[in-house]
């Protein structure tokens, strides 16, 4: 179970650069710092045995939220807990209970898929034998047996994704966090991933708590038990797909999402600007 | 509780270390390039120098003298032959050949009226023609001049003897050379660049591994997921650093040992006698080089961790590489006058110490201790910086 309460994070980014000689004088210092509120108030509960979708437009703060959950960034405010363990004060035990497939999912090209997976298992404290056995089990589940002993150099997007997912799940975590997992996958690979996630949610699969972020409506409609709509760094709505449709007063989920995620002004602006010529 | 934690950390560091080593060793092409270009470079240069010295020696043994117009100087020809020299007529285009380095010997040019002038006591001018850009002809010039001076002295002695004057009048004082340098010290004039080659080998050996585990991880996008494992970042950094340092140390060992067989291939007997490089010298080299490899690894990693890509890291690392290659030159150019502060400058200190080793001089505790302390401090600073930067580097 993952609980996030009133999470906030701001970054200071270099301001707009001056042109001409002014830019030279600024070298190395950047402009006056500009404060970016990447996440200002995100809250949600992701229960066990459910798939919770984090839905939001690009730049809404989904990746920053998940990075904070994975202990990579320290939040300015708010609380996050995994199975009741506070992520900020006890990052080690919290990370041991999570399998995170982050936005960056680089593999080691000179190692085989198996070595990539086993390495993470060992880092999670598993014995070499246990990690190996688990790698084989996961490779079976993700249908990547043929890849297992090949070096990952030259893997396709889908093959990389499978390896990275197996790597994230190697220690059999009860909480699974995926950042836009279907990015760059074809239809068949996406389907296979959906099946895997459904199985992991089921009691046979371990009733995992699964959180995944996406900006694709169909994914959410097909897969998620609960949806959290994030926009401009805030949670703007949450509930089942049905709840959100009712809340927005729409029958189409995409329309409902647009109504919930964007203000009337933003929607009007987009309509006036129209599609680019 | 603390004890088991420590054990766990050590085990995790070993897992990271092993993975990084496997990863580095599988990068065959890079490793092979480093081995060929850096490790074999030193012995190759040594053999090349010895081949050059050997040609000087064999030239001297041949006892040949190239002359233009020997027909004008029968007395000189007679003298040459009595000195068991073979007189050879120089080719007509000897000047052009000397310039093009086609001719390896200096050429003696004798004027037409040589004998007549000699009889009149007019001191005829005999030219020894060399091209100072042609090193081989330059090396023989001294030998030929000594030979001609010998002829002059013989003539003078005969003339004096005819007038009943002792030959000793010609030499009112005796000059004798007394060279203080040991054979090994003399050899460092030639072998002085070897420490430089060994250090470059270590630098280039550590470079790729250092960049790959830092900037390379960032570029591949594998640093972020790596940090999502429940690890202490110190453990991660120490494991990575130990792996890079091991690669650097491996290169240090290989290149230090490579001079042992390199020595057997020396073609010049004189050089082989002067260049004494045995197991003692090799192990002293390692005493100097291993801490250096550790420090260089940490510094290169610290520079590279701030870079987003391997390419960017290579550009930044150039500054370190340049400093490490230029600092030893202070020692090379200052020609022996050595200041105490040299020992506090990394790269320079190592060069100084290895030069001492080649000269056969003992190293004092201070000479070993100061650079060692500097290397330890650099390593600690580098590792601290990487551990501090790692998390922000992963998400940027």
Q: What does this molecule look like?
A:
The complex is a heterodimer of chains A (277) and B (396). By secondary structure, chain A is an alpha/beta fold. Chain A contains 11 helices and 10 strands. Helices cover 39% and strands 23% of the residues of chain A. The model of chain A has no long low-confidence stretch (mean pLDDT 88). Chain B has helices at 2-26, 28-39, 41-62, 74-82, 94-99, 114-120, 135-162, 183-191, 194-220, 223-227, 233-264, 269-274, 279-304, 310-333, 348-359, 365-395, and strands at residues 64-68, 86-89, 107-109, 127-129. In chain B, strands 2-1-3-4 form a 4-stranded mixed sheet. In chain B, helix 4 links the parallel strand 1 (64-68) and strand 2 (86-89). The chains are: A alpha/beta (277), B mainly alpha (396). The A-B interface holds A 67, 70-73, 91-96, 98, 100-111, 115, 119-120, 122-125, 164, 167-168 and B 8, 12, 15-16, 19, 22-23, 26-27, 217, 220-232, 391, 394-395.
Question: What layout of secondary structure does this protein have?
Answer:
The complex is a heterodimer of chains A (277) and B (396).
Chain A: E1 2-13, H1 21-26, E2 34-46, E3 51-55, H2 62-69, E4 77-82, E5 85-86, H3 91-96, E6 98-101, H4 113-123, H5 128-141, H6 157-169, E7 175-179, H7 187-201, E8 209-214, H8 217-223, E9 226-231, E10 234-239, H9 241-248, H10 253-261, H11 264-273
Chain B: H1 2-26, H2 28-39, H3 41-62, E1 64-68, H4 74-82, E2 86-89, H5 94-99, E3 107-109, H6 114-120, E4 127-129, H7 135-162, H8 183-191, H9 194-220, H10 223-227, H11 233-264, H12 269-274, H13 279-304, H14 310-333, H15 348-359, H16 365-395
Parallel strand pairs in B: 1-2, 1-3
Antiparallel strand pairs in B: 3-4
């Amino acid at each position: 179970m993952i609980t996030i309460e009133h999470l906030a994070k701001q970054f200071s980014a270099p301001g707009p650069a001056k042109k001409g000689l002014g830019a030279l004088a600024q070298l190395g210092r950047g402009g006056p710092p500009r404060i970016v509120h990447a996440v200002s108030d995100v809250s949600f509960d992701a229960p066990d045995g459910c798939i919770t979708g984090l839905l939001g437009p690009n730049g809404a703060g989904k990746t920053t939220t998940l990075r904070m959950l994975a202990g990579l960034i320290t939040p300015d405010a708010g609380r996050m807990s995994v199975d009741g363990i506070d992520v900020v004060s006890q990052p080690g035990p919290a990370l041991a209970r999570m399998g995170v497939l982050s936005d960056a999912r680089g593999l080691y090209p000179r190692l085989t898929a198996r070595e990539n997976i086993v390495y993470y298992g060992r880092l999670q404290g598993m014995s070499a034998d246990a990690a190996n056995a688990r790698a084989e089990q996961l490779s079976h589940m993700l249908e990547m047996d043929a890849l297992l002993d090949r070096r990952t150099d030259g893997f396709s997007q889908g093959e990389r994704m499978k390896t990275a997912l197996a790597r994230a799940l190697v220690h059999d975590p009860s909480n699974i966090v995926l950042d836009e997992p279907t990015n760059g996958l074809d239809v068949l690979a996406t389907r296979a991933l959906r099946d895997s996630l459904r199985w992991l949610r089921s009691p046979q699969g371990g009733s995992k708590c699964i959180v995944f972020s996406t900006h694709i409506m169909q994914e959410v409609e097909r897969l998620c038990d609960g949806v959290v709509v994030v926009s401009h760094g805030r949670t703007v709505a949450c509930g089942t797909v049905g709840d959100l449709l009712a809340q927005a007063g729409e029958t189409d989920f995409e329309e409902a999402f647009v109504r919930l995620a964007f203000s009337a002004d933003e929607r009007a602006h987009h309509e006036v600007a129209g599609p680019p010529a | 509780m603390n004890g088991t934690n420590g054990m766990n950390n050590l085990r995790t560091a070993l897992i990271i270390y092993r993975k990084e080593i496997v990863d580095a060793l599988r990068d065959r092409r890079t490793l092979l390039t480093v081995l060929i270009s850096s490790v074999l470079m030193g012995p190759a240069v040594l053999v090349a120098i010895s081949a050059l010295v050997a040609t000087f020696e064999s030239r001297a043994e041949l006892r040949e003298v190239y002359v233009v117009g020997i027909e004008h100087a029968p007395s000189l020809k007679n003298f040459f032959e009595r000195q068991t020299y073979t007189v050879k007529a120089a080719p007509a285009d000897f000047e052009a050949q000397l310039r093009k380095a086609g001719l390896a010997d200096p050429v003696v040019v004798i004027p037409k009226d040589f004998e007549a002038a000699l009889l009149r006591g007019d001191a005829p001018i005999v030219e020894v023609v060399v091209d100072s850009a042609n090193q081989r002809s330059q090396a023989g010039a001294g030998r030929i001049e000594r030979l001609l001076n010998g002829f002059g002295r013989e003539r003078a002695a005969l003339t004096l003897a005819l007038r009943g004057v002792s030959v000793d009048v010609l030499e009112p004082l005796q000059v004798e050379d007394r060279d203080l340098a040991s054979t090994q010290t003399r050899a460092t004039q030639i072998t002085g660049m070897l420490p430089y080659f060994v250090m470059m080998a270590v630098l280039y050996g550590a470079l790729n591994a250092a960049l790959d585990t830092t900037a390379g991880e960032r570029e591949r996008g594998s640093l972020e997921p790596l940090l999502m494992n429940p690890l202490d970042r110190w453990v991660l950094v120490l494991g990575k650093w130990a792996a890079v340092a091991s690669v650097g140390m491996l290169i240090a060992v290989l290149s230090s040992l490579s001079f042992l067989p390199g020595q057997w291939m020396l073609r010049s007997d004189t050089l082989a006698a002067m260049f004494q490089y045995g197991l003692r010298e090799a192990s002293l080299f390692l005493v100097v080089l291993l801490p250096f490899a550790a420090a260089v690894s940490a510094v290169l990693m610290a520079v590279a961790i701030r870079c987003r890509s391997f390419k960017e890291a290579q550009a930044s690392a150039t500054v370190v590489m340049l400093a490490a290659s230029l600092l030893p030159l202070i020692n090379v150019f200052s020609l022996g006058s050595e200041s105490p502060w040299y020992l506090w400058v990394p790269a320079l200190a190592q060069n100084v110490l290895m030069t001492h080793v080649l000269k056969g001089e003992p190293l004092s505790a201070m000479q070993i201790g100061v650079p060692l302390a500097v290397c330890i401090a650099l390593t600690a600073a580098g590792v601290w910086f990487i551990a501090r930067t790692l998390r922000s580097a992963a998400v940027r």
